[in-house]
Every structure is written in structure tokens, then in C-alpha cells.
From TrEMBL:
Span of domain Response regulatory: 6-121
Entry keyword annotation includes Phosphoprotein: yes
SMART domains referenced in this protein's UniProt entry, alphabetically: REC
Name under which the protein is recorded: Response regulatory domain-containing protein
UniProt source species: Methanospirillum stamsii
Amino-acid biosynthesis found in the keyword field: no
């Protein structure tokens, strides 16, 4: 416990308020004031900045303790512990809906008072750390040049970063819209199936989606991961939400296709050159070999030896042509590119 944590008391009974202050000071807390109505409580919180408040549900004035606590929670995010002599179900339900950090019944027990304050301060500190952590992660998501989204188990979109809103032309979201209101129809079917698989089985899943968007072929690389409940007992099979990241890889795919096109075009050009060289070399070689064979002499034998060497080189060109033709046929079969025979 930090030194002299401030507890603001809001109690409409003067004597009870003094008793609470005495007990709190005995426990080491600082009590800067005792108020008896909700209007003053809302005003004083901004001036005194207490660490925690003890609020009677029934107060003087027009504002109830529950109404005052709700305003304080939203405006100042200060934890409030309710204090009341009433323990009926209707009162308890009203108090629960206003998200208090604790609930005390009169007459107070000192041990219950101290324990409830410590638990409320601890819970508040954890909630505050979680909110700050969420803010940091959200800031990172907002800086990302990928689409980042969070889906609830009912497939409503809990979060979509600014890049995603711009990409899909989505206005500011005031509530959690359904997936159908965010993602284009041609993407929705496969993306919803991907999310469903993650919800059902709990593992991450990466899928490449290909579809037409705004009259253009688009390729999106999508990874969805589960957010698991701490106890594994909530949500769908323990998955309370899924987080997705989508990266537009359309430019990369188009470049790869262009490279394949250029590659097969070069192969086809090489094949044409091989055929030309074959015709331009083999035909004269055949004539030279025929003339040299007409008479036996040392010079003609030397000519025939050179013709054989050149013919071997042409055979190697033939092998290159055959290899190029095999590569070309492979590309034609798998990528549907190139000139068909």
C-alpha cells in the first residue's frame, strides 16, 4: 500500500461518515472530506483526486449514489465501493450494473472495510494497466500499413484499424458492425470460413485470398489467430475473439507473373535461335562433308575431322533446345503462359 492513499467518503448520515473516517484513518488512509450528496461528490472528485471512493447508495439531493458513481467512473475512472444498509436484490442489481469495485453492508466491519478497499485498489490497478496496454497495442495497429481487425464470436467486427477502414472505404464505426458490412462479398465467404476454423479449433490459420475488388484482381495474404479466455471456459471452445492481419500481396503476385512471362518469352526466343543456327550450320556442313568425301587425301580427311567437331557442337545446341522445350512445356502446363504449338 502506498503511503496515505486518499479515500473520499460520500455518506448522508453525519455520524456514520465520522465513524467511517475514524476507521479509515486507523487503517492508514487519508480521508480528505466527507460529503453527503452526489452533486458535490462529482464536483469534489475533480478537485481532490482521491485514489478510491466509498459511496452510500442513498444520498441527499436529487442524485443517487449509483448515478454519481456512474458519472465519476466514466469521467475520472476512479474506483467506487458502494455502502448501503439495503441488501435487497433490486438494489444489488442496480449497483452491479454500474460496475462498482466493491459492495459493503452497514453496519461496517473493519476487516471487511480494509479487505474490500485493498481488493478494489488492486483490481483498479490491473484494469488500468490493461487499458494502457490496449492503448499501446492499438497505437501500433494504427501505425500498421496492413489491415488489422478483431472479430467477436458472433462475427461482428470489434476493431478495424485506420488502414483497413481506408482500404475497404469504411466510415468511422460507432458500434461493432457485422462482417458483411465491412468486407466485400467476394472476400467475405473465404475470410468468414477462415475465422470459423480458428474459432472452432483454436489454432492460427494463414490463407491467401484471390478475388475481384473494384474491377481489379486482388490477392490478400490473411493470418487469423485466436484470443483465448484465461480459464478456457468462455467464448467458442475457449476462444473469446480472433485477431486478423491482412496483407495486400497483389503487386508481388503481378511481378511474379511478369517474371514468369518474361522468362518463358526468353526461352522461346532462344529456341527460335537454336533452330536458325541448326539450319544455317548443318546444311553447309553436309555439303562440305559430301565434297570432302569425294576424293581420298590428307587435306580432305582433315576437313572431315573439323566437320565432325562442328557437328558435335551443333548436337550440344540440339540438347539445349530439347532442355528449353522441356522447361517451356512445364511452364505452359503449370502457369498457362507462352506460345502454344
Amino acid at each position: 500500500m502506498k503511503e496515505h492513499e486518499k479515500v473520499l467518503v460520500v455518506e448522508d448520515e453525519f455520524v456514520t461518515g465520522l465513524e467511517i473516517r475514524a476507521r479509515l484513518e486507523d487503517l492508514g488512509y487519508d480521508v480528505p472530506d466527507i460529503l453527503d450528496n452526489g452533486e458535490d461528490a462529482v464536483k469534489k472528485v475533480g478537485e481532490l483526486h482521491p485514489d478510491i471512493m466509498i459511496m452510500d447508495i442513498t444520498l441527499k439531493g436529487e442524485m443517487t449514489g449509483i448515478e454519481a458513481a456512474d458519472i465519476i467512473r466514466k469521467k475520472y475512472y476512479i474506483p467506487v465501493i458502494y455502502l448501503t444498509a439495503h441488501s435487497d436484490e433490486a438494489t444489488v442489481q442496480k449497483a452491479i450494473h454500474s460496475e462498482p469495485f466493491g459492495y459493503l453492508i452497514k453496519p461496517l466491519e473493519e476487516r471487511a472495510l480494509h479487505t474490500t478497499i485493498r481488493m478494489a485498489l488492486y483490481k483498479h490497478a490491473m484494469d488500468k494497466a490493461l487499458v494502457e496496454s490496449e492503448k499501446r497495442y492499438r497505437a501500433i495497429a494504427e501505425l500498421s500499413e496492413n489491415i488489422i481487425f478483431i472479430l467477436n464470436p458472433d462475427y461482428s467486427v470489434a476493431y478495424l484499424n485506420s488502414f483497413g477502414k481506408d482500404y475497404f472505404h469504411v466510415p468511422d464505426m460507432t458500434a461493432a458492425p457485422d462482417m458483411h458490412a465491412i468486407f466485400p462479398p467476394d472476400l467475405l465467404t473465404t475470410l468468414e470460413e477462415q475465422a470459423k476454423t480458428v474459432f472452432e479449433f483454436g489454432g492460427s490459420l494463414r490463407v491467401t485470398h484471390s478475388f475481384t475488388y473494384q474491377e481489379e484482381e486482388v490477392w490478400l495474404d490473411s493470418t487469423i489467430v485466436p484470443v483465448m479466455a484465461d480459464d478456457g471456459g468462455e467464448g467458442v471452445n475457449g476462444v473469446i475473439q480472433v485477431v486478423g492481419q491482412i496483407n495486400d500481396i497483389s503487386s508481388m503476385v503481378r511481378i511474379e507473373k511478369e517474371i514468369r512471362n518474361k522468362g518463358i518469352e526468353q526461352i522461346e526466343q532462344n529456341m527460335e535461335q537454336f533452330l536458325i543456327l541448326n539450319d544455317q550450320i548443318r546444311n553447309p556442313l553436309a555439303i562440305i562433308a559430301s565434297l570432302a568425301s569425294m576424293s581420298e587425301s590428307k587435306e580432305n580427311n582433315d576437313i572431315l575431322d573439323q566437320v565432325k567437331r562442328i557437328d558435335n557442337l551443333v548436337n550440344q545446341l540440339d540438347k539445349g533446345w530439347i532442355q528449353s522445350d522441356a522447361v517451356r512445356n512445364f511452364l505452359l502446363k503449370h502457369y498457362k503462359m507462352g506460345k502454344k504449338d
